[in-house]
Amino acid sequence: IIDGVADLIMVIDVDYRVKLMNRAAREFSSGLTDESKPLFCYQVSHQRETPCDGMKYPCPMEEVCKSGRQVTVVHEYYQANGEQRFFEVIASPLLGGDGTFQGIVESKRDVTKRRRAEEMLQQYTERLRALAAQLAEVAETERQQLARELHDQVGQNLTALGINLSIIRTQMPKKALTSMLSRLDDSLSLVEQTAEQIRDVMSTLRPPVLDEYGLVAALHWYGEQYARRTNIEVLVEGEEPVPRLAARVENALFRIAQEALTNVAKHAQAMQVTVAIEVQH
Known about the structure:
By secondary structure, this protein is α+β, with helices and mostly antiparallel strands. The protein has helices spanning 23-28, 41-46, 60-67, 112-171, 178-205, 208-213, 215-230, 247-267, and strands at 8-13, 18-21, 71-78, 84-95, 101-110, 233-237, 272-276. Helix 4 packs antiparallel against helix 5 (178-205) and helix 7 runs parallel beside helix 8.
């Protein structure tokens, strides 16, 4: 009956000797079998002369003997032709009529394709993580450049415009129309408001306090700005890590906190938010 099973099945005694194999196991171990000599399970699985051990190849016999129940492990096997394969090994205790431990029954299933797929998925995941980190760094650099350009170009132009308007206003003749003076005052007010908005945008793009003082200080600053806009109080708990975190880590954590607070304002009916910073060494 067991010869019709696709999985490799072996009955192994407490001395690691293979007492019975189905057809799939015999085909897998072809070239190793010699009816004049006993065949051991570790010869079939790893072509070695000692039992399996260690974390890489935990011995199913020892695991079952210690636990007294069925165990599952994954082993890297090499066929007689040297081909590497991965097998999921399910080992169950084999008990005698008096209940004593006599060995194990092993069922081995080839999971090489699944293992290869998992390894490829892991590689793709690592590549995606690296790409995401790279994109985040690029985005952060672009934010810095945009904030710098707003400061160096737009900010300075607004300052110059405000100065020019102030000069024009002071040089207006006293007999100038009241409406003209009113328009100049409105223009000056508009320039001041626009400059303030530009400063807010620059701080949001890249808050200087993050570079100069660190993550916790930046969160305190942002919490105050956020509270003014949303009327939601922000409590920041924690101390600045010593030494400071890497710049890319600080950037990532600050952006995460920003996004979380944005979601609170959009979706929660909260009056207070607590942001806690903990560093585990």
